[in-house]
Amino acid sequence: MPIPFALVCDLLDECHRLRLAQKPNAKVVADWFVNHRSLIDAQDADLAALLSTLLPEKRTDRVYCIRDASLERIVGRALMLGASRLAELARYKQPGLGLDLADCTERILTVTPNPSYSAKHQVSVEELDETLHGLASRIKWSSPAIRSSHASFSSRDRTDLEGVYRRLTIHVIQDAKGKLANSVCPVPLTNSMLASVSPRLGIKVGRQNWFKARSIKHCVSLGHGHMSVEKKLDGEYCQIHVNVTSRPPSIQIFSKSGKDSTEDRQALRGYAGEPST
């Protein structure tokens, strides 16, 4: 059975609540995986889709080009809103109200909720991930690997996203909007969860957080415990993967944000590929 998106939203909501209360959420995350282990281990469950949902900020290879203005139009069409309710949906644009698009959508669905669906027809993690992958495959700023899968998702467009919104309940709206903007509070993975993860060629290795200091005194004030300090040099950070088993050796260049920038660095690739003399 596919993993219901609502279950993931329950976890994200609880993590967000604990974060606001400045409380740890490691136990909540561990308990969620224990309670839903049968779904996660099911043969038809897509673990990559689950991780993409829990850690959307890691999917820098996907670009959707959907921000509040375009998402507002998608929601308006999906919920078939009239002029008065479209104005209600757009209230997040008014300064001083402290609202965002998800808040306004939630208010509308509170008054006129979407129809209830059986468990069989609820939005699943796999369906949402496939829809987002299809959208990203059409965007030229997505990674080459994502764009190359465009043929497999040729029928996916924003109308599919509208169909997803029609089947969402109130409590998942916040997380659906945040996932598109890659702004959902990520679920932290513990060391034990990461024990089975190993580096792979073609997948960027995450880097530690860097902070810029004005002096050594300022540097010491930025952190505590073990720290590494290095002189900042002018230039551009990148991570280069070289597959020496291919002929000729292939090169992938990842930017600091994690995007595959190989195509943007054609000149560098040509220089790196020249034989030494």
Automatic annotation (TrEMBL):
Any transmembrane segments, and where?
none
Residue ranges of domain DNA ligase ATP-dependent N-terminal in the record: 4-138
In terms of Pfam families, this protein maps to: DNA_ligase_A_N
Q: Which UniProt keywords apply?
A: Ligase
Any one annotated GO CC term: DNA ligase IV complex
Q: Per the record, where are the segments of Basic and acidic residues compositional bias?
A: 257-267
InterPro entries, per this entry?
A: DNA_ligase_ATP-dep_N, DNA_ligase_N_sf, LIG4
Which BP terms in the Gene Ontology apply to this protein?
DNA recombination; double-strand break repair via nonhomologous end joining; nucleotide-excision repair, DNA gap filling
Q: What is this protein called?
A: DNA ligase ATP-dependent N-terminal domain-containing protein
> What organism does this protein naturally occur in?
Drechmeria coniospora
From which lineage does this chain's organism come? Eukaryota, Fungi, Dikarya, Ascomycota, Pezizomycotina
